[in-house]
Design brief:
This protein is α+β, with helices and mostly antiparallel strands. The protein has two domains: about 30-90 and about 410-430, no CATH class; about 95-310, DD-peptidase/beta-lactamase superfamily (Beta-lactamase), CATH 3.40.710. The chain contains twelve helices and 16 strands. It has helices spanning about 5-25, 40, 45-55, 100-115, 175-180, 205-210, 230-245, 250-260, 305-315, 330-335, 370-375, 415-425, and strands at about 60-65, 70-80, 95, 135-140, 165-170, 225, 265, 300-305, 320, 325, 345, 360, 365, 380-385, 390-395, 400-405. The strands form five sheets. A seven-stranded antiparallel sheet has the order 2-1-16-15-14-13-12, sandwiched between helices. Strands 3-8-7 form a three-stranded antiparallel sheet. It has a two-stranded antiparallel ribbon with strand order 4-5. Helix 3 (about 45-55) runs antiparallel to helix 12 and helix 4 (about 100-115) runs parallel beside helix 7. The protein is globular, with a radius of gyration of 21 Å.
């Protein structure tokens, strides 16, 4: 090993040690009774996770619970992948998947508070290409339905029904920033072939988002709720760049990650943390922070449960954490309130919950009827989901934050999530 290689290795180990010490300081455990929770009841989370692992439902899970900003439960169990031997750690690095969107929503609302962004602004104010005439595609009468595709892109016509037939009609109103934050813009519906433009490896938000200006919308802006898993928050991220004068990564680093102490969070895995990072599936590579140029607002972040809990704890405490106010309490309340009116959250299994029990705010789902949603969380609880297996909740009335991550992607974590929610609520003693 050369002197330079030795030096780089030492620096890498030193960086890893610093990040580990900082993470440990942020997640020091508090006795649950000190914040009004029951140790004995919270201990049932361990049993609930073990039951799911033993049943083969999940390979493992990491769960963190905090109240009043203080961590009262934090445990990793199981392995990274079914049949594997790599044990999960509390500091394992995960792809945040769609939890990235919640971070982007908070960033956008910071700019609203700064007076640099307005929810009713047309998107074209920040992305001029969006100012041209826009078309909406509508299934023709008698046409077969659009086939489902988990990954948007060139689809395969359904063998059972044939290829869907569309008519193109003009968009009646322009797309606004609020529509993007509420998934009511009509741009790219989850599970439907959209004929997306190619995203080149060298594309940045500045070069990619304008390509979306000619993409037909899936419904008239503002007329429906339908989850835009791949594109809506790419546009939001670009709007943030233009409004702030910083690229998306810089803005998040300066306004959220560095102040909160989210030192393991970035677009890609920090080089010092690759040894404890989990790819989305066995055999997939890891994007490396600093090498990534496309800062995806939809699903680009990599993080740890401890890191993401800092963000969740801030939200559960009315936008304040460790003496710093990140968002005004009224802004957090606005984000967590119903922003879609009578519209129904259709076309996407929101956190494994029936749409009759939830509404959508600005980047977050809100529990409105707990019994209908199948959760013990109270009305007003809000959060979001990443790929079905990364979750966070803020329970503002109780100042509780819950963050959990399960390896892989899919609906397999939903039963465990409902159990964890019930255990946490049952643990409240004052």
């Amino acid at each position: 090993m050369t002197i330079r290689e030795t030096r780089n290795r030492v620096l890498s180990l030193a960086a890893m040690l610093v990040l580990s010490l900082q993470a440990a300081a942020q997640t020091t455990l508090t006795r649950p009774e000190d914040v009004g929770l029951s140790s004995a009841k919270l201990a049932l989370i361990h049993d609930a996770v073990k039951i799911q692992i033993d049943a083969g439902q999940i390979p493992g899970a990491i769960v963190l619970v905090a109240r009043d900003g203080r961590v009262v439960h934090f445990e990793a169990q199981g392995v990274a992948f079914a049949g594997g031997k790599e044990s999960l750690r509390t500091d394992s690095v995960f792809g945040a998947a769609d939890l990235t969107k919640a971070v982007g929503a908070v960033a956008a609302m910071m700019l609203v508070e700064d007076g640099k962004l307005d929810l009713d602004d047309p998107v074209s104010k920040y992305v001029p290409e969006f100012g041209g005439p826009r078309l909406v595609r509508v299934l023709k009468p008698g046409s077969p339905p659009a086939p489902f595709t988990a990954v948007p892109g060139p689809g395969i016509p359904s063998k059972e029904w044939g290829e869907p037939q569309y008519a193109l009609v003009p968009a009646e109103i322009p797309m606004t920033v609020k529509m993007l934050l509420t998934h009511t813009s009509g741009i790219q519906i989850y599970g439907v072939d959209n004929g997306l433009p190619r995203r080149d490896p060298t594309d940045t938000l500045a070069t990619f988002v304008p390509k979306l200006a000619s993409l037909p919308l899936e419904f008239q802006p503002g007329s429906r709720w339908a989850y835009s898993n791949s594109l809506g928050f790419e546009v939001i991220a670009r709007v943030i760049e233009v409004a702030s004068g910083l690229n998306f990564r810089q803005f998040l680093q300066e306004r959220l990650f560095a102040p909160l102490g989210m030192n393991a969070t970035d677009f890609g895995v920090k080089p010092a943390l690759t040894g404890r990072a989990l790819p989305y599936a066995p055999g997939l590579g890891l994007p490396i922070a600093g090498e990534v140029t496309g800062f995806s607002g939809s699903a680009g972040l990599w993080t740890t449960v401890g890191d993401y809990s800092l963000f969740a704890r801030m939200l559960a405490n009315d936008g304040r954490f460790n003496g710093r106010q990140y968002l005004k309490p009224e802004t957090v309340k606005q984000m967590a309130s119903n922003q879609i009116g009578p519209l129904v959250m259709e076309g996407y299994p929101s956190m494994g919950m029936p749409p009759e029990g939830v509404k959508f705010g600005l980047g977050f789902v809100r529990v409105t009827i707990p019994a209908a949603a199948g959760t013990r969380l109270p009305v007003g609880s809000f959060g979001w989901d990443g790929g079905g297996t990364r979750r966070f909740w803020a329970v503002p009335d109780q100042r509780i934050a819950i963050v959990s991550m399960v390896p892989l992607i899919g609906p397999q974590a939903a039963p465990l999530q409902r159990t964890i929610e019930a255990i946490v609520m049952d643990s409240i003693i004052r």
